[in-house]
Design brief:
This protein is of the alpha/beta class. The chain has 13 helices and 14 strands. It has a seven-stranded parallel sheet with strand order 8-9-7-6-12-13-14, sandwiched between helices. Strands 2-1-3-4-5 form a five-stranded parallel sheet, sandwiched between helices.
Length: about 350
Amino acid sequence: MISRKIRVLVVDDSAVVRRLIPEALKNDRDIEVVGTAQDPYHARDLILELEPDILTLDIEMPRMDGLTFLNILMEKHPMPVIVLSSLTRRGSEQALEALRLGAVDVLGKPRGSFSLGETGQVLGDRIRGAMEAQMDNHLSRDANGGNGISPVHSVLHPGSGQRVKWDPRQIGLIGASTGGTEAIKMVLASLPANFPGLCIVQHIPAFISKAFAERVNSASAMEVREARHGDVLREGLALIAPGDYHLSLQRERGYYRVSLKQSPKVWYQRPAADVLFRSAAPITGKWAVGALLTGMGRDGAEGLLQIKEAGGHTLAQDEATSVVYGMPRVANEIGAVEEVVPLQQVAGRMTKAFLKQMAH
């Protein structure tokens, strides 16, 4: 429950955007745009003067670019920031870097022809979600993005040095939202190349999902890429749902095949973790290990419960390490979670669950 209006400062060099965003948010009873700034220097002065709760931030600006400003802001005056990025390849890479530096969320930069009503609703929801962010969890990672996570190779090769031969029915399922881009990268960076196949749903705009998959791939021993319709999951492959497409699974001749659809949004999201989890539960049974990570809302909770009821193993990230403890909290409240663990332990606990499956 919001006791007062959320105070928003819009930082953008475009006069059109500085006009459109306040217009889009003017009917939101929870939000007040207290000012606009055309560059980071002006923004710095207005932050001190107006004391906003949250910023919307353009990346490409004169005098000082948004990434430089964001880096300084997170060091000197950390606060929730939603980045507005251009819908280009360069924009997608900058958006991912902004998330790494501590931005809470990213949206495509609005244009003059966009729907004010729809944009106001989406941005308003993101602003409310950003206010739940625990900024310390955004900023507590070391320079390498490790956050204390260590590889689990020793778990997979307990003293023998032999490669584990996984059952082809084994599958990992991960869902995440706010704060999830870095959380997913950290988890996958600790997994070995021969880990059981993974399907991942991260709430992310379509224009940055491919770049996100490529960034995770560069940090992982597994092959990580955007899922394509008809892909077959295998050991050592992690598939990330493309933005604006639901990802679901079918079982065919002893393997799992991926399906992508632009069916209606679930919990206002596409892709949605619930779509993936619900499709997997009846065909994976005890062979699934599902994990729900940091994120706003309740997507994934009910699907995780179905995985548990089908015999799979379920985990949720704990509140202390979540940027937003929404999705994992709901999953825990409805009884969908067998283990609540810090982010640093997610990879290891998933591995142990897979090894336990092999032993039974």
